[in-house]
Amino acid sequence: MKRSIYTAGAIVATLGLALAACSPSTGGGSSPSSSASGSSQPAGEQKTITFRLWDETAAPAYEESFAKFEEKNADIKVEVELVPWGDYWNQLPLDVASGEMADIYWVNSSNFARYADNGNLINITEELSPDHDEWQQSIVDLYTRNNALWGVPQIWDSTALFYNKDLVEKEGIDVTNLKWGGDDDTLLPAAQALTVDKNGNKAGTPDFDPENIAVYGFNAQADLQAIYNPWIASNGSSLQDDAGQFSFADPKGVEAFQYLVDMIHTHHVAPPATETNTNGDITRDMFIRGELAMYQSGPYHLKQIDENTSVKWALAPQVAGPEGRFSGSHGVVAVGNAQTKNHAETLRVLEWLGSAEGQKPLGEMGVSFPGAVDAQSAYVDYWATKGVDVSVFIEAANGNTAKAPFGPDVNSGASAYSPKLLDVFLGVVPVEQGLKEAQDLGNAAMNH
Fold first, then answer.
1. Are residues 324 and 360 in the same domain?
2. Which of 131, 144, 256, 338 has the most CB atoms around it within 10 Å of its CB?
3. May I ask which residue range the UniProt record assigns to the signal sequence (predicted)?
4. Looking at the structure, do residues 135 and 251 belong to the same domain, yes or no?
């Protein structure tokens, strides 16, 4: 089940799964703060801290983590609330406004800024001790605003290339060094060699039938996190400028998008946008069925692929561009509710959530890469037992990354530019024109 920060076929951020909803609850007064990893507290009134998230796969790991926390903190009980992604962001502003929001809850980068700016979140920099386990720096940077960190890193993902070993080895392709653009482009020739019609003809050959393709080479599509955001970054462009305005329609952005669109419509080495625009996960399913040879995506698809395919597959670094290799990278943080009635206890739970011990179940149960660096080996070990080396994702996250969408109004902007950008991938509007129109629509919506 997908936990990507963005759906592959949409623009607006998502890490969602359908979950069983629970009602928000709040606890009573407060008690003196102490270390979350210390010994059990003296017997007395037990305070309840609520923790809200949207991922049913992660919930059991948190239940296990909080059970260990409660063994060491007898005066605190942590209740996990599951709210479906489809309801999560509609319910959040209502609960914040009414004072019924959970004490601690998950957010992503597209949604935290508004709540930080409005004073709804606990300032992690000011209120948590700086003496904590090391956190994934790219996620710390993403949630730092106005020189303060507003959430405790929980899980993160980056980008790599899933590839069909049999098909790639048959063609003798070096997937560890693929690059798009320029005279030394190796991606397009590889994708052409791997794209085969139903008669066995390869893309780019005289008899190739683009209307009857059996296997595609690469997943060029409107996938913000795994494809076009790292793509434009690797060509020297960016989704947004430093002020938060959309900036992807500059010449370098146009060049990057043109390459992706040409893979679909000119070279026919990527699945049609008529399918990927409406179902971003169709390319994952094609890879599972052996109908896609190379699939650039994140660790959020590891379980689906591992559990559902008979294809022999492995991982390689994401495709590089003219400016080098840039990974899509994102993560989720746990934020503290500034209006909590149990401030001291909430801080103790946040301290636990930031510790490697507290996050270890997320790795051990194969949920995702934990935000605490010392807990990440548990996730690596989980996949090593299945014969999968996921270290390529760590290398990607620690290298150059394409900055994820940010700012209090970025969702409004993304919703405005999304339809026009999908038209670009459909090929119904020229790339340069479509990107300019999309960028203008997005910025107008953010600046309204």
1. no
2. 256
3. 1-20
4. no
334: region left, alpha or beta (phi > 0 left; psi from -120 to 50 alpha): beta
Question: Strands (DSSP E) along 300-422, which ranges?
Answer: 313-317, 327-328, 330-336, 369-370, 401-402
Residue closest to 127 by CA, chosen among 104, 106, 110: 104
Task: Report the largest interatomic distance among the alpha carbons of the chain, rounded to a whole angstrom.
Answer: 80
Helix (H, G, I), strand (E, B) or coil at 293: strand
3-state SS, residue 351? helix
What is residue 44's predicted lDDT score, i.e. its pLDDT?
Answer: 62
Answer for the pair 442, 413: CB distance below 8 angstroms, yes or no: yes
User: How many CB atoms neighbour CB 329 within 10 A?
Assistant: 29
What is the domain extent for residue 354?
47-158+330-402
Instruction: Report the predicted TM-score, pTM, of the whole model to 2 decimal places.
Output: 0.86
Residue indicated by tokens 């149960």:
365
Mean pLDDT of 73-90: 95
Asked if residues 51 and 80 have their Cβ atoms less than 8 Å apart, the reply is yes
Closest CA to 311 of 334, 291, 288, 293: 288
CA 114 to centroid of chain Cα atoms = 20
Strands 160-164 and 313-317: antiparallel
Identity of the residue numbered 441: L
- The answer on 380 and 307 residing in a single domain is no
Are residues 397 and 348 part of one domain?
yes
Show the tokens assigned to 294.
């190379």
Whether 57 shows a pLDDT value over 80: the answer reads: yes
Residues 306 and 388 in one domain: no
According to DSSP, the residues that pair with 79 across neighbouring strands are: 50
CB 28 within 8 A of CB 427: no
Indicate the helix (H) or strand (E) that contains 50. strand 47-53
The domain tally of the chain equals: 2
Same domain, 289 and 208: yes
Question: 33-42, 103-112, 213-222, 282-291: which has the minimum mean pLDDT?
Answer: 33-42
Residues 418, 273 share a domain: yes
CA distance 366 to 362: 6
pLDDT digits (tens, 9 = 90+) for 195-204: 999 999 999 9
Q: What percent of the chain has pLDDT over 70?
A: 90
Count the helix, strand and coil residues of the chain and give each as a percent rounded to the nearest 5. 40, 15, 40
Scanning 315-385, the segments in alpha helix (DSSP H) are 343-353, 356-364, 376-384
